[in-house]
Amino acid sequence: MPITPLLLAIPLLLPAELGRWIETHDNLGGVRGVAAMPTGGVAILDSDREAVLLQSEGNTTTLNLGQFLHQPQGLSVAADGRLYVADTGHHSIMFFDQDGRMLGGFGGRGEDEYRLLEPHDVCVGPTFVAVADTGNNRIQVYEPGGAYIQSIEGPPGDPLRRPEGITIDSQNRI
């Protein structure tokens, strides 16, 4: 049965309300995303270094993911701790365990329903993964392992235009 997430325009939510937030200001260096970890720490995507920093209880672990990523832009952490990264340069979503081992990926350059073009963000909910498919002007929805579910292109007559951020709320709405 297809998931029918509701597309919403959310004017302002505080980071504490989302459990994750996105930051792209140049004055922060390569920080492109910050996500809450299920264990209470935070994961920080450093796009310049192509690394994810895991910070918890004063300790920082650096996962150097440059061998897998090219121009990462977005980050989300699943309830089981898997890290999902929007890999803009490879037009894909890659996911890793908390030790930096690649578990899989999905997407790939293209315009077909399951393909991606310059994804800028990813968000993992309890039952699906939503992707801001920026270059294709749509939101893509996948199962957590990467199986394609559906595309959301906006309401008739008012299509999405280069979405760059995405979140899923506590009621599974995008």
What's the short story on this structure?
This protein is an all-beta fold. Helix content is 2%, strand content 39%. The longest helix has 4 residues, at 15-18.
List the keywords.
13 strands; mainly beta; 1 helix; globular; 2% helix; disordered N terminus
Q: Indicate the multimeric state.
A: single chain
What characterizes the major β-sheet? 5 strands, antiparallel
N-to-C series of helices and strands = HEEEEEEEEEEEEE
CA-CA gap between termini: 18 Å
Secondary structure: helix percent: under 10%
**Sequence stretches where pLDDT stays below 50 over 5 or more residues:** 1-27
Please outline the helices and strands.
Elements (H helix, E strand, L loop, with lengths): L14 H4 L1 E3 L8 E6 L5 E5 L4 E6 L2 E6 L7 E6 L5 E5 L4 E5 L5 E6 L13 E4 L4 E5 L4 E5 L5 E5 L22
Antiparallel strand pairs: 1-2, 2-3, 3-4, 4-5, 6-7, 7-8, 8-9, 10-11, 11-12, 12-13
Can you tell me about this structure?
The chain contains 1 helix and 13 strands. It has 174 residues and is mainly β. The chain has a 5-stranded antiparallel sheet. Strand 6 and strand 7 form a beta hairpin. The N terminus is likely disordered.
